[in-house]
TrEMBL record, chain A:
The chain crosses the membrane at residues 20-49. Keywords: Membrane, Transmembrane, Transmembrane helix. InterPro entries: ARM-like, ARM-type_fold. It comes from Chitinophaga eiseniae. This is HEAT repeat-containing protein.
From TrEMBL, chain B:
Belongs to the glycosyltransferase 2 family. GO terms for molecular function: glycosyltransferase activity. This is Glycosyltransferase, catalytic subunit of cellulose synthase and poly-beta-1,6-N-acetylglucosamine synthase. The keyword Phosphoprotein does not apply. It comes from Chitinophaga eiseniae. The chain crosses the membrane at residues 17-39, 352-379, 391-413. Keywords: Glycosyltransferase, Membrane, Transferase, Transmembrane, Transmembrane helix. The keyword Nucleotidyltransferase does not apply. Pfam families: Glyco_tranf_2_3 (PF13641).
Length: 382, 482
């Protein structure tokens, strides 16, 4: 009790004499009071936030279960069981949900997105139809034109996830937005949903496509089965942004479009070493037989990364026409990586190289022999 | 005259210390704000950019997971299995047996059906001799490569050997006894993909695995450590990663990527000379040298930290081991400043020279010395009855309340975002601990730092000792009992 009384007295003195304290002590007192208040607020907020999260989870759980139940019963099982599912969806069943409330609509949309991501075939289309017929796209449509960055991006993510294209001209203009994230999301959205011209923006790209964006676009394009793939050779041209060219090189190789080979060969003249290396890599993946002599001719003047790609490409093409060149590189170069890839490419020729491999095993010594054995060992992949 | 001079000196000292404290506190507040922004930004990016597409993409870059092992025979099998089970489409696991004296290598050979192979190995960065290479004859373990090397007396040497043998352009540096989240590689590679600048390293927070439930090398339930010392360390890790590293990430001035978990651009690591086996703080030294290399070659770069905890490690549970670890860390810091002294205040090194190094110099390296001097000064003025008790108490309360505020904010950030702990009780156990930290934990950290500096100054030989592990709450019988 005495301690408490003295402590209270001390605090009262502190307040009373505050104005007479040196500045340092005044600052210390103010900061201490703020720190105590800040700590209290932090703890209160922690309690409140945890409680709020738990409350929300408790509120959402039954709705989520109900949504899952309805989706499984009326969409998933029906679609799986009956290939000729009626085009009319049982909207009245879903309208019993409190979808006019934002939190409920958000839960419903998140479940729709999850199911769309996890199913293929008709189910994603039915879920999209349900989303549209319940009018759930209206909020996203309004958000798209709200001008608020986060709202626009969230709307793009939602609409893209649901595969619904709204406001074509406006979305196409967003692919040129100054905001990196809006631009990126709009491009992905456009490529995913545009029915007739998903690659329209390729010609107008001014800012580089980040590696991430290239990955995402590549994935979306490779999953689109509803449109015929255009010839990506049309964008493999110096007129377009280098990152667009890189993406199109990869797409041309992925979709095995040999008509892109002349454009790729033309691109070998570029001064951009990185772009040239990617081009050579994709020529290899396309097994461009006609590119082999050109690659071998240009080899001596190339930087190391392009030399490596040429060696890899010769291995992938594997015609056997330049196996002597690979042998020469393995026997004479002093660069470890070039040696390694020459050895890998010789081995990649398989039957065509069997007698050469046997001879090399006899004649090579030291690191060169070790590299050949490394490449021949099926247990070692790289 | 004498007393006037003494008074002038003491007044100056007291004011200088106050300014120093105010500067430090301002930095902390700034970091707290920046870290919240960085965390929110990171989570928002995660929301709009799913990482699962990396799993299926043929464009996903390969990663070499490098994990040195020294006398890890008891847990090595579960740990390697856990690394092999990481969710990533293109990776290899390089286990570097660093001259273990126990049955680590034999266990690996038996369990994973390893056979010795003629492996083309190029030593690009210095390390002890690698005697043998092993690959599995079982295709299920085709991702595994085991190196058997001569003991290099440091983790740095073993990691260098792993880097030399690795195949991919990125490598993850971890410890074989760390427990990684299954999506670790997917999450750590993301910043490399979505930054317009060249990213040279990424890291993520570590936490104490001491009381967590572990099943077959996977964390099944995160728990606050039961013992006091590991619990203090858990609190310190949360503060350091969530409040410190995330704040520095926001301004691209990350000073260090932890040796327990970091994904690196191999090309830059090799060009910077690899890890220094002679360094006591090899992880920070590596990052400093990478940054120096980028600045000296005028190459823009970024180092990222992501807020999700991806790695759980067993932290020291005894005061002896803890003290030894902190002595080594302090010595490593002193060594870095001695080795890279040209960087300090050098505009050529941009943020490294003008922000990272000055901050670490004044508020990390000098802090224990200033604090120690402060304690001596307090004792002096108490003994000589020169103390104004009212003012002294006010100043101590000022420091105490502020330190609690900073810890509370880091706990709040943790709760706002992740909620790793399931129960309230666990959160409170950590919160309450912040009240005791300045009296129990902080003095140990302070004196270990002073000891580390002393050892560095006198050149005392460092003994590494054993990290005496208690093992995790494993449901299997794989507990490490060394």
């Amino acid at each position: 009790m005495n301690f408490m009384t003295s402590f209270r007295q001390w605090l009262e003195d502190l307040v009373y004499y505050f104005a007479y304290f040196p500045l340092v002590i005044q600052i210390a007192i103010i900061v201490s009071v703020l720190a105590v208040a800040g700590t209290a607020v932090a703890y209160i907020y922690m309690i409140f936030f945890r409680w709020q999260k738990e409350r929300r989870a408790k509120k959402e759980r039954p709705l989520r279960e109900k949504v899952n139940e309805l989706l499984l019963e009326h969409i998933i099982y029906k679609s799986l069981g009956d290939q000729d599912t009626a085009a009319t969806l049982p909207l009245e069943v879903f309208e019993t949900l409190p979808l006019q409330q934002k939190w409920a609509a958000d839960v419903f949309k998140s479940q729709l997105l999850e199911y769309r991501n996890n199913f293929t075939g008709d189910i994603p289309l039915l879920l999209r139809q349900l989303y549209l017929e319940l009018g759930l796209h209206r909020d996203a449509a309004a958000a798209l034109r709200s001008g608020r960055r986060k709202k626009v991006i969230n709307a793009l993510v939602e609409l893209s996830g649901m595969g619904v294209l709204l406001d074509n001209a406006y979305v196409l203009s967003l692919t040129q937005s100054r905001d990196q994230y809006i631009r990126e999301m709009a491009r992905c959205y456009w490529v995913q949903c545009s029915p007739d011209a998903p690659f329209a923006f390729f010609s107008h790209v001014q800012e580089p496509l980040l590696a991430w964006e290239q990955f995402e676009l590549f994935r979306i394009i490779s999953l689109r089965k509803d449109i015929p793939m255009p010839s990506f050779a049309q964008w493999i041209d110096f007129r377009y942004h280098p990152t667009v060219i890189v993406l199109c090189l990869k797409l041309a190789a992925y979709f095995q479009q040999p008509e892109a080979i002349p454009a790729m060969i033309n691109l070998l003249k570029t001064d951009d070493e990185q772009l040239r290396a990617v081009t050579i890599n994709n020529l290899g993946k396309l097994m461009a037989l006609e590119a082999e002599p050109i690659l071998v001719d240009m080899y001596p003047q190339q930087p190391d990364n392009c030399k490596l790609e040429i060696l890899k490409a010769l291995g992938r093409i594997g015609s056997g026409n330049f196996i002597g060149f690979l042998q020469q590189e393995l026997e004479h170069t002093n660069d470890f990586l070039l040696m390694k890839h020459a050895a890998h490419s010789i081995v990649a020729h398989k039957a065509l190289a069997s007698s050469l491999v046997a001879r090399l095993q006899e004649s090579l010594t030291g690191t060169r022999k070790q590299l050949l054995q490394h490449s021949l060992n099926p247990l070692i992949k790289y | 005259m004498y007393s006037a001079i003494l008074k002038y000196i003491t007044d100056f000292y007291e004011s200088a210390i106050f300014v120093y404290c105010a500067g430090l506190f301002l930095f902390y507040i700034l970091l707290a704000v920046l870290s919240l922004v960085a965390i929110r930004r990171s989570l928002w990016k995660n929301k709009i950019r799913g990482q699962q597409m990396l799993v299926a993409s043929p464009l996903t870059p390969g990663i070499s997971v490098i994990a040195p092992a020294f006398n890890e025979g008891v847990t090595i099998i579960a740990n390697v299995r856990s690394l092999l089970a990481l969710n990533y489409p293109r990776f290899e696991v390089v286990i570097v047996n660093d001259g273990s004296k126990d049955d680590t290598l034999q266990k690996l050979v038996d369990e994973f059906e390893l056979v010795e192979v003629n492996f083309a190995y190029r030593q690009q960065i210095p390390c002890q001799e690698v005697k043998r290479f092993f690959k599995s004859s079982n295709p299920a373990y085709s991702k595994l490569l085991v190196l058997d090397k001569v003991n290099g007396k440091s983790k740095a040497d073993a990691v260098n050997a792993g880097i030399n043998a690795s195949s991919f352009d990125y490598f993850l540096n971890t410890d074989v006894d760390c427990i990684l989240a299954s999506d670790t590689l997917l999450k750590l590679i993301k910043p490399f993909m979505d930054d317009p600048q060249r990213v040279i390293a990424t890291g993520a927070p570590l936490r104490a695995a001491n009381s967590c439930d572990v099943e077959a090398g996977v964390i099944t339930r995160v728990r606050v450590p039961k013992a006091l010392l590991p619990r203090f360390q858990e609190m310190e890790y949360i503060r350091s990663y969530l409040l410190g590293k995330m704040g520095w990430t926001f301004i691209n001035a990350v000073p260090n990527v932890s040796g327990g978990l970091g994904l690196f651009d191999k090309d830059i690591v090799i060009k910077s000379g690899g890890y220094d086996p002679g360094s006591f703080g090899e992880d920070m030294d590596m990052v400093v040298r990478m940054c120096r290399y980028m600045c000296e070659n005028d190459l823009p770069y970024r180092i990222h930290y992501i807020p999700e905890t991806l790695c759980w490690t067993e932290v020291p549970a005894t005061y002896k081991v803890f003290f030894r670890q902190r002595v080594r860390w302090a010595r490593g810091l002193a060594q870095i400043f001695s080795k890279h002294r040209k960087v300090l205040f050098n505009p050529k090194y941009k943020k490294l020279g003008l922000i990272i190094f000055p901050y670490n110099f004044f508020f990390e390296l000098l802090a224990p010395l200033i604090e120690f001097a402060g304690i001596i000064y307090y004792i002096y003025i108490i003994v000589n009855h020169l103390i104004n008790w009212d003012y002294a108490i006010i100043l101590l309360v000022f420091i105490y309340t502020f330190s609690i505020l900073i810890t509370s904010l880091s706990m709040l950030w943790d709760q706002l975002i992740f909620r790793y702990y399931q129960s309230w009780k666990e959160v409170w156990q950590l919160c309450i601990l912040s009240l005791a930290e300045p009296f129990i934990y902080h003095p140990i950290v302070l004196f270990s730092a002073i000891r580390g500096y002393f050892n560095q100054l006198t050149g005392k030989k460092h003994t590494w000792g054993n990290m005496q592990r208690q093992g995790f709450n494993q449901s299997s019988n794989l507990q490490k009992t060394t």
